[in-house]
Amino acid sequence: MTPFEPAQTPALEIDHVSHRYGPRVAALDDVSLTVKQSSFTVLLGLNGAGKSTLFSLITRLYAIRSGQIRIFGHDVGSEPGAALSKLGVVFQSRALDIDISVRQNLMYHAALHGIASSRARDLIAQVLDRVAMADRSQDRVGNLSIGQMRRIEIARALLHQPRLLLLDEPTVGLDIKARADILDHVRRLSTVEGIGVLWATHLIDEASSGDDVVVLHKGRVLSHGALGEVVRGSGGADLRDAFNRLTGAADQSELEAAR
Fold first, then answer.
1. Residues ≥6 apart with Cβ < 8 Å to 59
2. Alpha carbon of residue 37 to chain centroid
3. Are 110 and 157 part of one and the same domain?
4. What is the extent of the structural domain holding 205?
5. Contact 169, 201 (CB under 8 A)
């Protein structure tokens, strides 16, 4: 941690962010949330909740028109270089070139970050070791399983040594064991290496007792806090019950407002 990153500075701050597709479709409505340093935060929402839109705003794929996003105190809009240099991302869609080797994919990504080839070779060896894929560096990506490809995508996201990692539905298409392996690995990155993690998913069982949880539904944050706090605040028996109560109440309010 540098002197410019005191422990109390959040890894990520989303402050009253809204986003619309056209004049009528609100993808995000006054969203605020925080990801603490060295924490694992689950962004929980059904498909269409706004998770991918939020990731697109954090990474500047979309322009921020309303609200503010800060990464370790750096505003994404006014200080994009400083903010994004601390950010690693694994998007839902696959982004590896399957026709070249693992190492070639990572060398290309390093070049995009301006990392010299001699330094890149050392970093590639480190990140592949961190995701238990050091023995597959020369393999063609197309010969890997989906779970192994996900590990390589995580390695790529870590290549420039970020302090915040975003993962958008990272276990889609994986079997139960591969899903558990990826979850366990990313949790270790948070607890052992101190990386802040925002893990977006529609799968309730991917949240664990030590996690922070953000319930996002139809573009609005319905609850945000430690998993136990979210459950208690909803009056539910567990997270699944809490999610159903929160989203059901929100849908009912929407129906009543439309009458």
1. 84, 87, 89, 166
2. 13
3. yes
4. 9-86+164-176+186-259
5. yes
75 token code pair:
């505003």
Residue listed under structure tokens 């430690």: 226
Instruction: For residue 61, give the DSSP letter.
Output: S
Catalogue the long-range contacts made by 150-155 (C-beta closer than 8 Å, 24 or more residues apart).
Answer: 150/90, 150/174, 150/178, 150/182, 151/182, 151/185, 152/96, 152/102, 152/105, 152/106, 153/90, 153/94, 153/95, 153/96, 154/90, 154/182, 154/185, 154/186, 155/106, 155/124, 155/127, 155/128, 155/130, 155/131
Both tokens of residue 181? 């392996």
pTM across the whole model: 0.91
Q: Which CATH number is 27's domain given?
A: 3.40.50.300
Query: pLDDT tens digit string along 211-244?
Result: 999 999 999 999 999 999 999 999 999 999 999 9
